[in-house]
Protein 1
Amino acid sequence: MLIFLQAVLGFDNLLYISIESQRAPAADQARVRRLGILIAIALRIVLLFIMIQLLEALSEPLFSLNWEGVITGDFTFATVVFLFGGGFIMYTAVKEISHLLSVDHLEEGVNGAKRKSAASVIALIVFMNLIFSFDSILSAIAITDVFPVLAIAILASGAAMLLLADDVSSFIEKNRMYEVLGLMVLLIVGVVLLGEGGHQAHMHLLGYEVVAMSKSTFYFSVVVLFIVQILQTGYRRKLEKVRAHRAKLVQKAAP
């Protein structure tokens, strides 16, 4: 059950790793993915051990806000991580989507995106992996707090990410239209983390209670996005064939 949980919750993480690794130099991308995942797995196990030991302390509020009519809530360490991580993921997704749609990007071509150093990409992958880890680790601890069992589940999910990372990245590279889809999924992940953080902090914003998005709603939204993308891809191919057929008919009819 834990391995399945880690695999399901790790989908968005794998998607982020596949997209972000393409910002590294082409020759280093596979190494960046492997090192990023390996370092992140090691740190995730350390994080798991710390969270088990300090679970009660982490549930204590760090600070409270009581600005009636604007924002109220009691913020723990976990809720701060959710809120910061959700905001950062949304910022990253919006920035990358705007870059894909920019005129400069169109002039440079799909491979003309600004490259980052391998070290900076690895650092970002590890950082984002830790943010994603909070949700999966807290969900896993709700099932059991036996450290060896949880560690085995994390190692198994990490091994799956290592096996799939290159294939997912290669698929996105060959089918660039799915990169926008992946970024939209990350945007929804950011909304989920913001909602989860606000809900756990019992936050009220502008007089309204912040409600967490259920996992079933999240995965339903992701499935719908993929179905729409697949249908659009098939329809676009059909239109291209129709246009090519009409062009041939026009050429034959021309004197």
Protein 2
Amino acid sequence: MGLTKMHSTELQDMSQGELAYHRLHAAIRAGEFQPGDRLREIDVAKKLSLSRTPVREALRKLESDGIVEHRPRLGAVIRTLSTTEIVELYEMRLVLERTAAEMAAKHANPAEVDLLKEINEQIDGAGQDTPRAAALNQDFHRSIYLATRNRFLLASARALNNALILLGPTTLDDEARIKTVSSQHAQIITAIAAGDQQAAGDAAEAHLQTSLRHRLKVLQS
């Protein structure tokens, strides 16, 4: 759920270590590397078309972020969350998402509501393209946070991003699930458009509860 996008000019201003960190972070977020995967310097450097020194620097930063851990005889490995940690993460996310929906209902302008509708229509039409649906879903939730007009809530959401990466593959794993998500998004949008803070918060909470139940079901299968 990254709330900022890097532009080419920003990338050009980065050091090699910062660039390696950004590229590796993006690759993990995109699912190119999964929780539990070993990150060998030589393999990562080849994949990112960088030398091993900046990759080593990126891995150290990812370790300080809590995304990567060092294991004896294996080296750098992407952390895997326990079921308890996943539930705790969703509890925290639920608090933030509910607050964001409530504040968006208070502050969002018509253009922002239209953007939410447009993104959700694209999610609904994603069909079997689950990676596209997942990326659009991130855009949808990012747009709600931006509509809150609250820099501290945005900062809290950014702080949660690293943990969200560790959830692994998206729960938008088939067309039926995508339809469920878009339907729940529509309820959030309706409440935000109406300026109904209570309804927006309730809809956001119900949405996150459904997502948690689905993820736990997948883990148990």
